Amino acid sequence: MINNYRVVVHFDGTEYHGWQFQAPEYRTVQAELIRALKIIAKKQMIVTGSSRTDAGVHSLGLTANFHLPVAIEPESLQRALNSLLPKDIRIMECALMDKSFNARFGASSKTYTYCIFTGPVQSPFNLRFALHVPYPLDIKAMRRATRHFIGAKDFTSFTSDEPKKKKMREVSEFKMQVKKEEIIFTVSGKSFLRYMVRNMVGTILDVGRGKIKAEDIPAIFAAKDRRRAGQTAPAKGLTLVRVEYQPQQNQDQTK
Known about the structure:
By secondary structure, the chain is an alpha+beta fold. The chain has 2 domains: 3-105, Alpha-Beta Plaits, CATH 3.30.70.580; 108-241, Alpha-Beta Plaits (2-Layer Sandwich), CATH 3.30.70.660. 20% of the residues lie in helices and 30% in strands. The chain contains 5 helices and 10 strands, in the order βαββαβββαβββααβ. β2 and β3 (58-68) form a beta hairpin. α3 (139-146) runs antiparallel to α4 (196-208). The longest helix is centred in the N-terminal third of the chain and has 13 residues, at 29-41. The radius of gyration is 19 Å and the shape is globular.
């Protein structure tokens, strides 16, 4: 009997070339999970991830699924995987699912956060997880800019994805919170293009620095030209925090 397992993976992406398996010389999170599963199942397994993350991006919520030809209690499988994975990758949840569950195609929403530290000196304890921006920023202008990204739009100007790929995406939420010396952006949508969130944040940072006006954002969208938008914010500030599924697909079938 083939069993379909869902796992939620936390990882510090600093040492990895993203989630997706690449050539053997590139260390990826998916490759590490495949390696661990091969030890458990005694054969190469296919692992499907909810999202592709860029090199250096982190996760508190990436979801994956895989089919095993052996029956293992989810709690036992979770312990086994964590004993085999590097310490900067952890399986935080493990559940036995209906065979139809697919971590990629079943996802209804994904949420990312991007963290910026604005104090004069950055602690080494958040060095890997926040971009240090010690210069003054126009917070009011940045707030105005975020509003222009919400809704269904053509994000050609904010991606470096393949030219033939459709660039229409819908951003359902784009919040900006200022907490003392931190700025935290929260972005939600069903799917995102390559570098899209990082380019959005980088453009808003350029608004904060006075290089771009918030009122120019609609014209940047209309131009459909990546050169018109702002910088690509570094990967280390970006974390995939949550992937959501329709209730019937998120049901633990062991209950």
